[in-house]
Amino acid sequence: MKHQFQTSSTRPQSWRNQLRRPVPKGLARGERLSRSAFATAATFSEWGWVGTEVGAAEDIGPQHRAAACGFRKRICKNKSAPRVDPPPAKSGAEDDVVVISSDDDEPECSIKACKANPNCCNYLGQRNWENEATARKSYLEAAELGDDPKDSGRDSGLPVGLKNLGATCYANAFLQVWFQDIAFRAGVYTCVPELSLLPGKGVEESPIYQLQMTFGALQHSNEKAFNPVKLVECLGIRAGEQQDAQEFSKLFMSHLDNEFKKQENTLVRSLVTDQFEGRQVYGTRCATCQNASEHQSTFLEIEISLTSDCKLEDRLKANLEDEKLDGDNRYDCSTCGTKQDAFRYLRLTHLPPVLHFSVLRFVFDAKDFSRKKSKHAITFPLSIDMRPFLSEDGAEIWYELRGVLLHRGPSAYHGHYEAQVFDVTRNAWFQFNDEEVRQLKLEDLVGKQTNGRVQTSKDAYMLIYAQRDAPSLDPSILNVPKHAFDAVQQLNKEYLSSCEAYVRKKQELESEFSALREQKREIYQTWQISDVDEVSMVLSKSALEAWLLKELDKTTFNRSARKTAEISHPIPSLTSDLRQRDGSPSPPPPDKIFGVSNGEKDNTQKDIATPAAHKIVCTHGLLDPSESVNMKRISMSAWERIQEMGIDATAIESNRICEDCTAALFNEKLYTLQHDDMVSRFDASMGRDRGSGNEWWISKSWLKDWKLKKPKMHVNGCRDPIPDASRFRSDVYCEHDRLTPSQKFRERISTPALEVLKEAFPEFEPPDTETETCTICEAIAASDREANREARAKAEAERTRLPGLARRDALGTLKATKLVQGTYYLIPLSFVTQWRGWQAKPLTAPRPGPIANDQFICEHDGLIINPMENEEMDGAAFTITTPEWEILGELYGGGPCIECTLESDDESGDNNLESNRPLCQDCRKSRLSDYNHAQINVYRLADGESLPDVNGATNQPAQTEKAQSTEPDVIHIDDTDAESPTLSDSPPARAPGARKRPKPVTTYGQRRSKRIRTAATAKKGKTFSIWVSKDDTIRDVKRQIEDAEDIVPFYQQLYLHGVELTDDTQTLLQVGFLRNDRLILRAIEAMDEDEAVNWALTSGDVEPKTVRPRNEGRAFGGTLLGSTYAAPAVPTTSTEQSTSAASHALAIETEPGPSRENDSSEDQDMASVPSTISDGIVDLDSRLAQELAAEDAESSFHIVDDETEATGLSCASCTYLNHPRLKYCEMCERELVL
C-alpha cells in the first residue's frame, strides 16, 4: 500500500482542482441559469469518492483525506462579522450586467444543517457576547461579585427587620413587638448588664447586653435587617428548631424579670410588673349562705379559647362566667358545715398598661397525643373597652390594638411566625416578616375585613393592646447605652465601607469586561477561513465553545487565562523527510508532532491529552476523520490571538490528517458498497436458472449472517470468514468429513449464486447436491431412531399401567380428600415430577431411580410431615393408592413404606388417619421452623368478624374484655355533656394506607373512642400470601402486608394462634411461627365522635385503647431559658421585697377544673387555683422551666452544631419528628431515611 503526503510548502498544484466545489461562471446575455450547479455544493459528501474516484487505499490523496474530514464542504458566512454595505452601482453599465432572479436562497446555515460542517464556526456561543448588558451580568456573576450591599440598605421610611437564623422567626416576632413598647425599651436601655452576669461569663455574654445591642440596632442601623445571632447564642437557643412563640414569650419575660430585679433602679426592678402584670380574683361562693372564699393572683396574659367564628369580647365574657358546682362537684362550705351547691367565679380587678391576649391556636389531641392547629377565625376590634370585664364599675378603660402575632401554616409543628406592629414613632402599621418589612394600610391589616374597626383572622396567635390614656414616654429622648450605640455605629461604618468596596470592585470588573469583550468579538468576527484549501487550525467544537464561555461561567472563570498559552502554540509543519514517498509512513512521536522538548514532554503530554483534544485526535496523534463532526476550522491568525488570551485546548493544522485512519475508514466504506452490491447480485442469481444445472450446499447460518447489511461475523479491517470455515463447517460436513445426512443446517444455492460468492471467496469449493451423504452417520441415526422407538414403547407401557399417576394432581391432605376408606401411600413429589418428564421425552430425559422416602422419616423412625396438613404435603409428598404402590415397587423398588389408613369417624363425620409410622412432633416442628424464603398465608378479617379459634373456626361476634390499664397513655371515655367543638372544618388528610386518618379532636371536651368497630352481622374476610423468612421481625411482616394490602403498620393488629403479636421487634422464630401457620390480620380504624358516643351509650363499658404519645422534642430544655439558675438579688427594702414577691399567674384558665370534695378551709379551696405562682426571685414559670431543664442531662446549655441532632428525623410518610438515632418512625413504623 502506497501513501503519499505533501506538506504545504511542497504541495503540487495539480490536485487543487480535484473535488473542489464547482465555481459558477459568468452567463452570456440571455443565457438561462442552471440551478443544479448550486445543489452539488450543498449536498457534498465526505466519502462520495469511495468506489468512484478511488478503488484502493493506495490511491488516496491529500484531497481525499481533506474531504473525509469535511474540509471541502462549503464555507458558511460568518454571522457575527460586521455588515458591509455593497458598493454603489456604476452608471452606464446596465447593459453589461446580467440580473439573475430566483426564489431560491443560498444553502441554509443553521445549527442543524451545519452541525457536522467544520467550515462553519457559527452557533458556538457568540450570542452570549453580542448583548452587552446580558454578557456583563453573566461576567459579574461568574466573577462572584456578589450582591450589592446597597440592596440591604434601610429605607428611611421603614423600621429595621431581624434576620432569621434558621427557625428563629418566633423570637424575631416578639422582639419587634417588645421594641415598639417605648416604656419597655427605655427600661432595657437603663439596665446595667454587669449586674446580671452569670458566673464565669463576660459582659458580652449577658442577655441584657445583647438585648440592648439588638434594640440599638433596630433604632439606629443603616441596614434593613440586623443579625441577632449573639443574642440567640447567649440564650443557648437552637436556631434550627422551631419552637412555640408563646412559650418563648413566657420564658424570656420570666428571665428578664429575674434579671431586672438585680438592677439598682427601682423602676427597672418592677418593669415587668408595672408594664404587663394584671390582677385577678378567683373564688367560690356558697349558693345557700352566700359565703365566699377568694384568692388573689396576678397574670401576664389572658388566654382566649376558640370556637367557630368567635369574637374577642364574647370569649372574654365566656371565660368570666360563673361555673355552677352541683351534684358530685358540690362545694364543702365551711360555714354551712355540709356540701352545698356553689358557684366558682373569676374576676379581673386590675389591668396593666399593656394587655396581652394569648389565642389558644394550638390544642392538644388525645387521639395521638399531639398538638393540632385550630383554623377557627377570631374577630377582634381595633379598640376595646375593658371596663365591662372588670369587677368594679367606673369610667371606660379603652385599649388600642398595637400588635398582632400571626402563625402561618396548617401544622402546629411547622409554620412561620410574623408580626404586625404599630410604630408609634411613625404612626403607622408595619408587617415584620423577619428581614422583610413593609408598611400596611389599615384596611389590609389582618385577613378579611368585616367593617372599619373590626378585623378577622384565622392565623392570629397573640393580640397586644395598649391603654389609650396610659402615660407614655417620648421616643425621641430615648438614649441607647454607649456600648450599644458605639457598636451600632461601627456596624454602620463597616456597612458603608462594604458599599464603597463593592463599587470599586464592580468598576474594575466592568473595565476588564469591556476589554475582554472587545478582544473576543474581534477574534470570532474574523476567524472564518476564506478558502477550503487554506491551511488552517483545527480545534474541537467543545474547545471553542468552552473558550467563548469561559469568562461567563462561574466554574471556569477563576482558571488561569495563561495556563496553556506557552504550550498551545501553533504546531510546526512536518518536513518532507518524515514521509516516505514510496512506502507507508510511520506516525511521528507525540513530542515531534506537538513540537516539545524531552524536558517538557511529561508536563505537556498531560495537557494535550485533554478531552477536547481527544475528540479529534486519533491514537497516532493526528486528525481522526471519524471525528469530523467535532472539528472546527479557524484561521491561523485567529488561533495566534486565542493563544495570547489563553485556552485550555490544543489545535492541529488542517493538513495533519492521519493516513492510516483514513485508509481504515476507506476500507470499511468500500466494503459496505461492495457487500451491498454482491448481496443484490446473489439474490438475483438465486431467482433464475434454478431448474437447470447443479446446485450446491452451503451453511444456512453463514448465509443468513452474510446477507445482513452489516454481517455480525464481520470484523473491521478483516475479510469475512469463508462459508466452510471451522465455525460453519459442521453445518455441511459431519465428523467424518463427509456430507452430513441431516439437511437441517445446510441450504441449496444455484451455480450463478456460487459464482458471485467466489468473487469474494475464490477458494470456496462446496459440495453439490449429487454428493452422497456419510454412511456411518446414517447408520448411527438409524440406530438412534430404533432406540427412541424402544424407549417410547417402554414409557407407553408404564403409562398404561399407571394412568392415574400420569394425569392427576396430588390427592391433597387425607383430611380434606373425599376418598373412600382404605389404605394410601406417600411417595416424594420429586419422583413423580421426574417420572412425568421421562414420559414426555423418554430418549433424552433420565428415567427416575428407586423411590426414596427417607426424607420423610426422622432419626427416631417417625414421620416429620403431617399427611393431614395441606401446607406440609404441598410441594413435598404425593399420595397414591395401593395398586399404584405395588406397580411402582415392581418397576422401581425403594422405600421405606409409608402406609396411611383412612377411616371415617361416625360421630364427627371427619376422616381419621392411622399410619404405620408415628408422627414425631419435635422433628416436625424443627423442620417447619427452618425456612429462609417461604410463602405464608395471612387471613384478613372483615369488618365485624371475630377472631377464629385455634382450630380455624370463627367465633360468634362477642366483646372481648380487656383489663383496665393504669398506664398514663391509656385513654378512657368519660360520659360528659361538655361541648366538644370540632377542630377544623376542612376534611382530614388521607393516611398512606387504605384507611382514613383519624379526625383531629380537641381535648377540653369529650374524648373519642379508639375501640375497634364491630358489625352486627359476620362477614367473611380474605386470604393473601406474602414471602417471609424466619429471621424477619413482626415489623418486617407488617411492611410486607402494607405492600400487599395498602394498610400502614400503625393500623395493623396481627394474631397467631389467637394471641396478638404486640412486640414488633420479635422475629417469627421467636414468636413460634411455623411455616404452615397462618397469621390473622385485623385492620383497625378510629371512630369519629358521633359514632363513639353512640357506641358508648349502646354497648356498655368503653374499651380502653393504648395510644403512643408523640414526642414533643426538647423545647427550650438545655437553654438559658430552660435553666433554673437564679443569681442573688441586690438588697431590697421590705416594701420592695413585698412588691417583688408578688406572684405572677401566667394565664386565666379557660375551663377551671372541678373542686375537690373535702375542701374544708379557704386554704384548701385556694390550693385548686389553676395558676402557676412564683415568689421572690424565682422565674415566673419556674415549674415549667424545671421540667424542660430536667430533660437534658447537662446542667449548662450548649448550641447543637449537628442539624440532624438538633431537629431530629422527620418521617416522609406522617411527618412525625423522631429521635435522630431511631431507624423506624415511632408513629407509623416506616423506615426513616437520613
Blueprint of the fold:
Layout: H1 36-42, H2 62-68, H3 127-130, H4 132-142, E1 161-162, H5 169-179, H6 182-190, H7 207-220, E2 225-226, H8 229-235, H9 245-260, H10 266-269, H11 271-276, E3 278-286, E4 292-299, E5 302-304, E6 310-311, H12 312-319, E7 323-325, E8 331-332, E9 339-340, E10 342-350, E11 354-359, E12 362-365, E13 370-373, E14 378-381, E15 383-385, E16 398-408, E17 416-423, E18 428-433, E19 436-440, E20 449-451, E21 454-457, E22 460-467, H13 482-524, E23 537-540, H14 541-549, H15 554-557, H16 590-593, H17 598-608, H18 611-614, E24 631-634, H19 636-645, E25 652-653, H20 659-686, E26 695-699, H21 700-706, H22 726-729, E27 746-750, H23 751-760, H24 775-801, H25 803-807, E28 822-828, H26 829-840, E29 851-852, H27 870-873, E30 877-881, H28 882-891, E31 894-895, E32 899-904, E33 911-915, H29 921-929, E34 934-940, E35 970-971, E36 1022-1028, H30 1034-1045, E37 1052-1056, E38 1059-1060, E39 1078-1083, H31 1089-1098, E40 1105-1106, H32 1134-1140, H33 1162-1166, H34 1182-1190, H35 1203-1207, E41 1209-1210, E42 1217-1218
Parallel strand pairs: 1-2, 5-11, 6-14, 29-31, 34-39
Antiparallel strand pairs: 3-4, 3-10, 7-10, 8-9, 11-22, 12-13, 14-21, 15-16, 16-17, 16-22, 17-18, 18-19, 20-21, 23-24, 23-25, 26-27, 28-30, 28-32, 32-33, 34-36, 35-40, 37-38, 37-39, 41-42
Pfam families: DUSP (PF06337), ubiquitin (PF00240), UCH (PF00443)
Region (Disordered): 1-28, 561-604, 945-1008, 1151-1171
Protein name: ubiquitinyl hydrolase 1
